[in-house]
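Practice problem: predict the structure.
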Amino acid sequence: MSLANQVHPITVRKVYRVTERETAVCVAYALESRASGPLAVRFGVEFNLTLLAGDDPQRYYEVPGVGRVRLRERGCCAGADRFAMVDDWNRFRVTLRLDRSGDIWYMPIETVSQSEEGAERIYQGSALLASWPLTLNPGVTERIEVRLEIAEL
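Answer:
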């Protein structure tokens, strides 16, 4: 049976919280299915950030269980509840914290430029995608909170 022509109504509420006391942005998501039965979905949240230099060893990802990874790299942290980007030059860390473990994909955002040596990729920023497999039951609200923190080193 093809799912291409089926409609599954889902309500998503998104609430941002920013306070003067914290250097963080919290985003709370509430998902509710209005389908007739359980619905298996993958819910994802994407953040696009930049530390300006994809190959600079002073700017990198802190990958849980791996350590430092250059911003030009791509990969996935399965079952993670945090992920960070660090700028040693400017002395700060941006940490993505999840209230429940999920998969965090990271990849460069690049443009292609024509140079004297030919086409070359230019790092513009980083895309972080946190996602979770969920089973949405009718009338039951699934809640997920994501927190983006900025801290001095």
